[in-house]
Design goal:
Layout lengths: L10 H50 L2 H13 L3 H15 L4 H17 L6 H14 L5 H15 L8 H14 L4 H14 L5 H17 L6 H14 L3 H13 L13 H15 L2 H14 L6 H19 L9 H4 L1
Helix pairs in contact: 2-3, 2-4, 3-4, 4-5, 5-6, 6-7, 7-8, 9-10, 10-11, 11-12, 12-13, 13-14
C-alpha cells in the first residue's frame, strides 16, 4: 500500500507527494488525448475516401444501373438524388443508347412533375417535349404526350383547366395509340372528364364507345375503370340492376397489384353492398358483400353500420313475408 504523507505529518514532503499524484494522472490524460488525435488523423483520410466514393459512385455506374437506382430514389421520395441519377444516366447513355437516354430524361421529368417540394411542371413539360421531338417513334413518346396533358388536367387548380380541350387532347392520344397503355389511359381520362356531370343524352352517346373499348381491348389494364364508368352511365339512366352488375364487374376486373397482395378491398365491399341494398334492392348481393366486409375486415369502422344494414334487411324481408306495407306511410314501415 502506498503511503502519501498528510499535511499534518511531514509538511515539507506533502507537496512532492501530491505533485507526483498530479503528474501521474496528468500524464494519463495526455496519453489518452494523444491517442485520440492519432486515431482521428488516421480516420480522416478514410472518411475522405468514403465520401469521395459515395459522390463518385453514380458517375462510375452505367445507365443500366443508374436508371433503376433513380426510380428507387424516386420511390423513397429522395427526389434530388433521383434527379441527379437520371441526369447522369441520360449523359452516360446519350452516345450509346438513345432508349436509355430517353429513360433518363423521362425519369427526371417525372421527378419535377410529381415531387411535393420544388415541383416544377414547366420544367417537366419541357423534358417531355424533348422526348417527343428527339425520339417520336421511341416507346416513351406516347407516355410523354400523355404526361403533358395530365399536367394540365391534374397538375393545377388555378386557372381552371379547359376541360373540353383536355378531352379532345386525350381523344387524340387514344386515336394515335389505341393499343398502347398510354392511349388506353388517355381514353379513361377522357371519359373521366365527360362523365363528371353527365346528362342522359351524353350517357347514351358514351355507352357504345365504352363497350367498344372493352370488346377491342379484352386484356387492357384499364378494364376496371371502364366498367365503373359504364356502371355510372346506367345509374344516370336509372337502370339500377345494370349499374350494379357493372359495378361488380369493375371490382372483379381490377388490376392486381403484385407488390401488394393484401390490397384493401373494404371500400369496394362497402360500395357494392350499399348500391345493392339501396339502389338495386338486391339483398342477396348486399348480404354477400357486407358479410365479406365483416369476415375480412372485422375491425373496420363501418362494421357497426354493416350489422345494422343486415338487421334492417332482415326486418324488411320479414314485413314482406307477412304482407306488410313498406310505403313511407305504412304502419309497419314506421314501427
Amino acid at each position: 500500500m502506498k503511503f502519501y504523507p498528510s499535511e499534518t505529518t511531514f509538511a515539507g514532503a506533502v507537496k512532492p507527494a501530491r505533485k507526483r499524484r498530479e503528474d501521474y494522472f496528468l500524464n494519463l490524460e495526455k496519453k489518452a488525448t494523444r491517442r485520440k488525435y492519432r486515431l482521428a488523423w488516421t480516420l480522416v483520410p478514410l472518411f475522405g475516401l468514403l465520401l469521395s466514393s459515395c459522390r463518385d459512385r453514380d458517375i462510375s455506374q452505367s445507365a443500366e444501373e443508374l436508371i433503376p437506382a433513380g426510380w428507387e430514389s424516386y420511390r423513397l421520395g429522395e427526389f434530388d438524388r433521383a434527379v441527379e441519377q437520371f441526369q447522369k444516366a441520360a449523359q452516360v447513355a446519350s452516345k450509346e443508347d438513345q432508349n436509355l437516354s430517353m429513360q433518363g430524361i423521362f425519369g427526371e421529368a417525372a421527378c419535377w412533375q410529381y415531387r411535393r417540394d420544388g415541383k416544377d411542371t414547366s420544367r417537366a413539360a419541357a423534358l417531355y417535349n424533348e422526348i417527343i421531338q428527339v425520339a417520336p417513334r421511341r416507346p416513351l413518346a406516347p407516355w410523354s404526350k400523355l404526361a403533358k396533358v395530365r399536367i394540365q388536367h391534374f397538375g393545377r387548380i388555378e386557372p381552371k383547366p379547359d376541360y373540353e380541350s383536355l378531352a379532345r387532347e386525350y381523344a387524340a392520344i387514344y386515336e394515335r395509340y389505341p393499343d398502347h397503355p398510354a392511349g388506353q389511359e388517355a381514353f379513361v381520362n377522357r371519359f373521366h372528364i365527360l362523365l363528371f356531370d353527365p346528362s342522359p343524352d351524353l350517357v347514351r352517346h358514351s355507352l357504345p364507345e365504352l363497350k367498344k373499348f372493352l370488346a377491342r381491348h379484352p386484356e387492357s389494364p384499364f378494364l376496371s375503370p371502364v366498367c365503373a364508368q359504364i356502371s355510372l352511365c346506367y345509374k344516370v339512366l336509372k337502370e339500377r340492376d345494370e349499374s350494379l352488375s357493372w359495378l361488380i364487374r369493375a371490382f372483379e376486373k381490377r388490376e392486381k397489384d403484385q407488390g401488394n397482395p393484401n390490397a384493401d378491398n373494404s371500400g369496394s365491399y362497402w360500395s357494392i353492398g350499399r348500391a345493392a341494398e339501396y339502389e338495386a334492392g338486391n339483398f342477396t348481393v348486399a348480404r354477400s358483400y357486407y358479410q365479406r366486409l365483416i369476415d375480412e375486415y372485422p375491425k373496420d369502422q363501418r362494421i357497426y353500420e354493416v350489422r345494422r344494414a343486415l338487421r334492417r334487411m332482415g326486418e324488411v324481408e320479414d314485413i314482406v313475408r307477412r304482407g306488410g306495407d313498406l310505403s313511407p306511410d305504412g304502419g309497419e314501415a314506421g314501427s
